[in-house]
Amino acid sequence: MTIVKARKVGNSITVTLPKNLGVETGQEFLIEAGRNNVIMLVPKVPNPFNGLDDLHMDDDFEGVKLLDNEI
Description:
Elements: E1 6-9, E2 12-15, E3 29-33, E4 39-43
Antiparallel strand pairs: 1-2, 3-4
């Protein structure tokens, strides 16, 4: 376990992450304060539904006929 120290940079407090963690410059994280003052950084993942303009369910139901009360 590596010990790091919080530093003041401008109006913010920063913590330097060791290089061996493999964090890329500009990588985004969700941050949350947990129980017992634990600070969690979770890598932000891209939304899988962004950019899928061609995703339509209509094609899946083509030719399907509704029964009496399914409307």
